[in-house]
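Annotated sample (chain length 328).
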Amino acid sequence: MYALQRIIVVTIAATGLACALPPGLALSQEAFPAKPIRFVVGYAPGGSADLLARMIARKMSENWKQPVVVDNRPGGGGTLAAVQVAKAASDGQTLLYAGANFVISSALQPTLPYDPFKDFAGITRIGFSTQVLTAAPAVGVRSVKELVALARAQPGKMIYGSAAVGSGPHLTGARFNHMAEIKVITVAFKGAQETLIQIMGGRAHYGVTSLSPALPFIRDGKLLALAVNTPQRSPVFPDVPALAETLPEFKRNETSNGLLAPAGTPGPILNQISKEVARILGLPDIREWLNAIGYVPAPCTPEEYDRILRGQHEILSRLVVDIGLKAK
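Output written by the structure step:
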């Protein structure tokens, strides 16, 4: 009888303690994931960001035996997607696929319907796309140093062909122009394909685009690859130097892709998702696919990703002021 009373007392005490636990800690004691996970993506279906998100979602679902659904919410420079996740429960079931537009919006827009740092918890960086600085052979330059020398010799005359103002490739090119201390005319085109066509047609002297659309033109000799924006050379073109070899500041990328959760999501859940993404990015078939499209996988811990995002925000916040996109 005494033993039975002790069991009852211990059970009641344990139950009371569990009820008293903070919601986040109580959640962390449950098996995760206990229900479907939603990736909110601020891009339209079919693009590179969407394809990468779906690849990770598929592999995660196969391993965890839970549906991982991609929810495309394009618009507002990624803010529509970010709002959805900022308002979601802090249980790890709703995640934001944070593309370049997440940190760009934080630097460019004075007011957002969320705080990019207080309302989110970092999970992991996924990686970053390789961008390439190209010029047409007719321009007559064979290196970054020659391009800079030519632009300095005729200030305000060379044309930098750019994607939409405020996009990742545009800001990479603008950062290059600013750091190289060259004055050029910026002409924005509708996208990477049009930018490349205009460079080949002589209506722009050089430009920065993602590597994938430029690959066939570089291989055909219609464009010269002068440099890539990755900290090290790309395995796709090992003979093409990294911009950091000429301009050391380019060792730090201004944008990347990653996963974010609502603020308050328990640490064990963040770490579990982070390790799963790292596992997926390390799979041989995934690495082969990413290398072929010039994408650099670079997973990290939740704490590291928080620091990376803040560093990128600082870089872009200074840049948009320096190039006149935002007042001081």
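Annotation: Confidence is low (pLDDT under 50) at residues 1-28.
Annotation: The first helix runs from residue 2 to 20.
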